[in-house]
Amino acid sequence: MYRILKSFILLSLVNMSLSQKIGKLTPEVHPPMTFQKCSEGGSCETIQGEVVVDANWRWVHSAQGQNCYTGNTWNPTICPDDETCAENCYLDGANYESVYGVTTSEDSVRLNFVTQSQGKNIGSRLFLMSNESNYQLFHVLGQEFTFDVDVSNLDCGLNGALYLVSMDSDGGSARFPTNEAGAKYGTGYCDAQCPRDLKFISGSANVDGWIPSTNNPNTGYGNLGSCCAEMDLWEANNMATAVTPHPCDTSSQSVCKSDSCGGAASSNRYGGICDPDGCDYNPYRMGNTSFFGPNKMIDTNSVITVVTQFITDDGSSDGKLTSIKRLYVQDGNVISQSVSTIDGVEGNEVNEEFCTNQKKVFGDEDSFTKHGGLAKMGEALKDGMVLVLSLWDDYQANMLWLDSSYPTTSSPTDPGVARGSCPTTSGVPSKVEQNYPNAYVVYSNIKVGPIDSTYKK
């Protein structure tokens, strides 16, 4: 019995040492940011929150201050494998404004695109927190989510994205004790692409099988990926926008390995447990080319209020998700989503009929239905999801899937190919970073509440 107990204690000590440790070189101080919870009739309560930058942007170093990761490669001495790397490496605090170009003011946050300090930082990904150690969970099934956004300084190839994902509220530290850093340091990211470019996943490093990117000096991908349901409330620049649900077979965060992840880094994009494409509503793609953009009906030269409503079959927060509706408010006018002009695809909201018809008419893989469609998306929304605020450029496809004609091998006149008026030569990250270093996006006035409670009619 003594030998068994001794072995158990030794094993526990070993497991405790294999962890994603917390660095002490830079204090972690989250920028404050408020949001509002509304009730029937439009009465809203201001909630004090804060934002945290994703762990993937942070400095990871040894106890002696050596880089665990430089450029797009791991230090082979400190990080020869996943377990040893997690034991040796520390995740440190962030200098939000000087390093990442992130500033907050009351209910708003500004994300700058290129920030030059000791090195060059490109974009950022933030999470809204309820307190210092936990992400804010939003339960929007049968509710609406509203925010203001300024995309006037986002040109072709850029994406200011605000979306919900099924991350653990504590960043995964309870489920994965080897993750000591937790939500306070922005850990636990996942989405429906099952990204494999994350340096740490579920308390483990992602060193094994790591392949540095051939066209990005800062990224690569490993054997592991991090999957969960994703609700893209807003992906946009000043030329195009889309709202897109991405269901998964299992809504909560889970780890995948290699090609079983699906997504862009795998041999089969549709081989994972999530829908990487989603069912998108992009007004331009659905035939209305005069609806969204500079000096158009929704004028991207000005701030836009964006309202997304999650309609259930019985009107309650426990019902089945049947529809996702979009409204815009600008200059005091409430404007409904544009109506599709594509033959065979009717309406102006995301519902099962729209998604089925869109996939058929556009000739797209229907992974949306395969992974449970709106019903599965609704389950994730009911459980609660974490809000992500980001700004990024696209090293995979130059953001053409959002704002240009894509795939480029198809004719722009084919149904579903034209998604925006940006040329197919646009969006190359090296050029975007050179030409638009001062680009930025501002998100503000976030509200959640019952249908028609968060905006003025």
Automatic annotation (TrEMBL):
Gene3D superfamilies reported in the protein's UniProt record: Glycoside hydrolase, family 7, domain
GO biological process: cellulose catabolic process; culmination involved in sorocarp development; glucan catabolic process
Glycosylation sites recorded in the entry for this protein: N288
GO molecular function: cellulose 1,4-beta-cellobiosidase activity; cellulose binding
Assigned EC number: 3.2.1.91
Disordered: annotated segments: 409-429
Family affiliation: Belongs to the glycosyl hydrolase 7 (cellulase C) family.
Protein name stated in the entry: cellulose 1,4-beta-cellobiosidase (non-reducing end)
Lineage per the UniProt record: Eukaryota, Amoebozoa, Evosea, Eumycetozoa, Dictyostelia
